[in-house]
Design goal:
The structure is a homodimer. Chain A is α+β, with helices and mostly antiparallel strands. Chain A is built from nine helices and 14 strands. The longest helix of chain A has 17 residues. Chains A, B: InterPro entries: HypE, PurM-like_C_dom, PurM-like_C_sf, PurM-like_N, PurM-like_N_sf.
Chain lengths: ~325, ~325
């Protein structure tokens, strides 16, 4: 039994074995083991609910893998609305022939991150499709969290400071480099990580951002343009305060990308009341010294994002467009 | 704009357009339109949480399509634990080149079923993968429901009657017939449907089954063997009480399948206290006249399922095994 076969997804004895002997080994909790059609949970108050499918290639990359990203990504989406992540579902779509070793590495990675974040994987589904009908493995995770302090995109106010939790574009750069078989001579790693501890640290210090958003597909440009459009606000950014690692800048220059457009998987943007912004920055810097205040909301009209370079020259930071980079997450 | 392009999944302007102009047109509700990273919901008491990925081929089949099945399937999983389905997430993985027409037909189908069942699609995700990296479209739905009366697999008691809500194996037969390009000269349709109204009708009549399970992949055999193993019970079935349509039997005989092993997508098995079984049957028959009492739990040991034919001859109904039929749902 070295590779996943079609019969592992057939709903019969082999699927039962795969679930009981392998999947339950890693996702071990009482709720999952009840084997009901749905998990039964008890949460009081408001809840957050989010979903993401992960199709990243390669499935193992510097700083993470599709398992890690699939758990972190949904944890992060829950955190961004001010929720404490509690429960995840997982749906595997596996290409016939995936090795058990690879699958087990992915399960192990998911289990580790879930445990570190005190999150339980409570329901799941496994499909196997014939060779050539998907690419190794796709993973969907959906998540439920308990709202600690509700944070919504619509609440960004004029004069809010815009902060970022670290340097940008590392995940996108790692993936594009792996994809194009550039030989990375650095130890550049994806920023893929859970943001739960950072968000909880802000809350413990009574910092409640007006809005938060992890800058995944479409990068910083997409988040800020979405915010500008949704709230009809104008955001001014100082280019020099946005940190980009040298290796990332090298890859961007080589391949013609803007770091603002490239995906992050553990870096988030915050809109914060000015009075809280310095304290927030201090807290963010405990996790990544490249965190910084990168700009502010300068008007409650116009729906646009402006980038000012060190010489004072301004340009629009547009919504990313075209085929950025498929299968980044 | 006739086909889905890679750029529709890139996180940039094109994806934004696809979501705002097409997806929001069909999944129109206030929660989704807040465009937060997670939907924010309020539910009191116990909740049910379930997930399924759908990879069925062909994506349009007699009696349904991948959109209908993806909404009904998760609604049904929630109903099976005694929950009223309330909220769904949807994750699309689309192969570059899928036509907008086909995608819109799927969205329309999902929207229709969700509305009929008073279920809101509150969060979603869209990925596009290059041609040849998936097959047209895969859909994950996860769902949240409010527990009305908790129903769990572990509660099946000795002497319970086993009921089924209709004739079996229609979905599996329709898919295998479409797959092998048999020319169906009948109007055989998949049983694909939501079970919400049936379960709610049982509850309204104070019928609370000990357990319920929709007999999808692995069919009736898988459900009953899982129940027998989990509860260490012995189940005796009367073969002649299990209805199979003639066309279904024909397909099974032609292709060497057992109808007990073939998938259903809107037919469920119930374990019911003897005193309630006749009333339950009456209610089930209002929805499908082929509903019947098919057997009973005859022992609280042995973990096995026995099938008795009209001549009184008994055999074990085994767990299905091998490559039943890939991509049935």
């Amino acid at each position: 039994m070295k590779n996943i076969l079609l019969s592992h997804g057939g709903g019969g004895e082999e699927m039962n074995e795969l679930i009981n002997e392998l999947i339950f080994k890693y996702f071990d909790n009482e709720i999952l083991k009840e084997t009901n059609d749905s998990a039964i949970l008890k949460i009081d108050g408001e809840i957050a609910f989010s979903t993401d499918s992960y199709v990243v290639t390669p499935i193992f990359f510097s700083g993470g893998d599709i398992g890690k990203i699939s758990v972190c990504g949904t944890i992060n989406d829950l955190c961004m609305v001010g929720a404490k992540p509690l429960y995840l579902s997982v749906g595997f779509i596996i290409e016939e022939g995936l090795s058990f070793d690879e699958f087990e590495k992915i399960l192990s990675s998911m289990s580790k991150i879930a445990k570190e974040n005190d999150v339980k994987i409570v329901c799941g589904d496994t499909k196997v499709v014939p060779k050539g009908k998907c690419d190794k493995i796709f993973i969907n995770t959906s998540g439920i969290g308990k709202i600690i302090h509700k944070i919504e995109t619509k609440n960004i106010k004029n004069r809010a400071k815009i902060l970022i939790s670290g340097d940008i574009a590392r995940h996108g750069s790692v993936i594009v480099a792996a994809r194009d078989e550039i030989n990375l001579e650095s130890d550049l790693k994806s920023d893929c990580r859970s943001l739960k501890d950072i968000v909880m640290a802000l809350f413990e210090n009574n910092i409640y951002p007006q809005a938060m958003r992890d800058a995944t597909r479409g990068g910083l440009s997409a988040v800020l343009n979405e915010w500008a459009n949704f709230n009809k606000i104008e955001i001014l950014l100082n280019e020099e305060s946005i940190k980009v690692q040298d290796e990332v800048m090298g890859i961007c220059e080589l391949l013609g990308f803007e770091p603002y457009d490239l995906a992050n998987e553990g870096t988030f943007v915050l809109a914060i009341d000015e009075k809280d912004s310095k304290k927030a920055l201090e807290i963010l810097k405990n996790f990544n010294e490249n965190a910084s205040i990168i700009g502010e909301v300068i008007s409650d009209k116009n729906s646009r994002v402006i980038l000012k370079n060190p010489y004072g020259v301004k340009r629009f930071l547009e919504y990313p467009k075209g085929e950025l980079l498929p299968r980044i997450c």
